[in-house]
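To: structure desk
From: M.T.
Subject: fold request, one chain
Message: Could you run this one when you get a chance? Sequence is below, nothing fancy, just the single chain.
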Amino acid sequence: MKKITLLSGATAILTALSVPAFAQTEISTGANVAGVAEVDDNITDIEDAVQDSFDRSADADRFGPSDRRQGLFGNMSLSYTGRTGNVENQDFALAGRIQHNQAPFAQSIGLSIEFGEDDNGNKDKEEVAAIYDAQYYFNDRFYAFALGRFNIDGLVDGYDNADENVRDLEEDDDLRRDGFLGFGPGYRIINTDTTTWRVQAGVGVRYTQTGLQHINDESETEVGYIASSRVYHRFNEMVFVTNDTDYLTSDEGGDVLTNEFGVNFKMSDQLATRLSYTTEYQSDREIRTDNTLGVAVVYGF
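Reply: Done. Structure tokens follow.
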């Protein structure tokens, strides 16, 4: 059975219009050639990953659409790198998000495109992905949602990337196309200043095509069912906990269940800590359950 990708019901696609900013390419004179800039970029990546963990745990959607920015807004990013000399290759990436919020209805669309060539001029990446997310609030507690995702990996075609006349049997089970569309109702069981709990469940359709199916001009479509729960509770100004649960099932894809429990501490204005424990269960794996312990600490002075 093929692994089915989990689509979470919680949405944090875009919250503000991003204004492009072009920073200096090095933190100080000579930093690039000395290797200092590369290490500094790695430090920034780690800081961003930790901050993202804290931002997700706060659950921006826990109070509903009341604080959402209204109207149409979004951003777009493009990058291209071409290399010559000891290596000759190129990479192209395009990504963007558009969101439109109007009273009780909020929707967003995201797109990413990536292409690349290796040193021999052969394609080593050809991926396109799109997502769609929508929520319509009938009142403060009851809402409807829709989730959509579609991925295309153009390099999975059943043939060798360097020679299109040679079969690549390893790609027979790899996904060339993978799409999912789900919709259903959601309800906020608890919605107070200190505690929120919302649940949602619905039906979805998944479309897949493997490398072998691409050769035979075949594909597979099946019905799946999704359910999600989001719990947030703040004990005081210093401590809050979250518990996020998602479940997805279908005949061919089997069952996928994830649960993340997190505890967030704000010791002071300078020190914050997040502890999380994530469990992921997939019925079609030999070892069905994976567990992950996460620790994130931010200290400023």
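Reply (cont.): The longest strand covers residues 175-191. Let me know if you need anything else for the meeting.
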